[in-house]
Amino acid sequence: MSQRVAGKIAVVTGGSRGVGRTIAERLIKEGATVIITDINVEAGEVTAAEIGASFFKQDVSLQADWQALHDQVQSEHAGLDILINNAAMLRTADAVSENLEGWQLVMRINADSVFLGVNTMLPLMANSGGGSIINMSSSSALIGMPHFAAYGAAKAAVRGLTLSTAVYCKQAMNGVRCNTVHPDGINTPMIQEIASDLPPMDETAAMRAIPFLCEPEDIANTLLFLASDEARHINGAALCVDNTATIHPPHM
Ligand SMILES: NC(=O)c1ccc[n+]([C@@H]2O[C@H](COP(=O)([O-])OP(=O)(O)OC[C@H]3O[C@@H](n4cnc5c(N)ncnc54)[C@H](O)[C@@H]3O)[C@@H](O)[C@H]2O)c1
């Protein structure tokens, strides 16, 4: 069996289900020690026990929770190699139907959280010789999706933070890389739960959407590569895992 991340210490936020669970399980199979975090304690503990990770209760939008995670990882492992900022929420509202409260909630959970993760954990990674930060973004950061006004804006903020972080790390020569992954649709509870909120699609639109939907394993393959030393020269990249969704105008 290959061991592509042997001996590495990894944190995966939102690890109790969906993409987070899938990549956590994969990292463990490939030789890493994994800490999953989640706001959902019950699901997090069950998942951790099932896949062989340890669980840390965390609301990713709270600075105190990031500091507590930092302190725990530092005292138990003395460093960190992989941080996957994966936890997020999805909310369907366009720029007119959205309200300030909803906008701020999405920005807090999906963008402030990633800033806090980078801000708190990057020094720990740098002090232990470098590592890989992977921020989960989305196709909605790169193309206009009218029903995801706040979500798309938050995912674009994640992309912008990733650019500045990657260049900062290169200039600091601290051995840390920072990249974003941009899926379109992934077959997880997140997308299943909001499917009924979306406007109904005609047959052509539905046919067009099908090739863009992928499985969590497709994203895990990409995350594993970026987490591993195979991607040691990839820093600041936006990796689209979308089967052309972000480059194909729907009317063509
Ligand atoms: N599913 C898709 O179609 C899709 C498409 C593009 C990008 N993404 C992104 O991929 C990532 C994973 O998505 P998924 O589909 O696996 O989502 P999911 O909803 O299935 O899982 C998200 C996990 O994050 C946790 N979480 C939510 N808020 C939290 C908080 N405040 N603190 C800590 N944990 C919290 C949830 O409890 C859950 O376990 C997300 O960043 C998402 O935005 C998903």
How is the topology of this model organized?
Layout: E1 9-13, H1 18-29, E2 33-38, H2 41-51, E3 54-57, H3 63-77, E4 82-85, H4 100-127, E5 131-136, H5 149-172, E6 176-183, E7 185-186, H6 189-194, H7 203-209, E8 213-214, H8 216-227, E9 238-241
Parallel strand pairs: 1-2, 1-4, 2-3, 4-5, 5-6, 6-9, 7-8
Helix pairs in contact: 1-8, 3-4, 4-5
The protein binds nicotinamide-adenine-dinucleotide.
Nicotinamide-adenine-dinucleotide binds at residues 13-14, 16-20, 38-40, 58-61, 86-89, 109, 136, 138, 183, 185-186, 188-191.
Verbal overview:
The chain is an alpha/beta fold and 252 residues long. The protein has a single domain, classed as NAD(P)-binding Rossmann-like Domain (Rossmann fold, 3-Layer(aba) Sandwich). Helix content is 46%, strand content 16%. The chain contains eight helices and nine strands. A seven-stranded parallel beta sheet has the order 3-2-1-4-5-6-9, sandwiched between helices. It has a two-stranded parallel sheet with strand order 7-8. Helix 1 crosses helix 8 and helix 4 runs parallel beside helix 5. The model has no long low-confidence stretch (mean pLDDT 94). The site of nicotinamide-adenine-dinucleotide has 28 residues, from helix 1, strand 7 and helix 6.
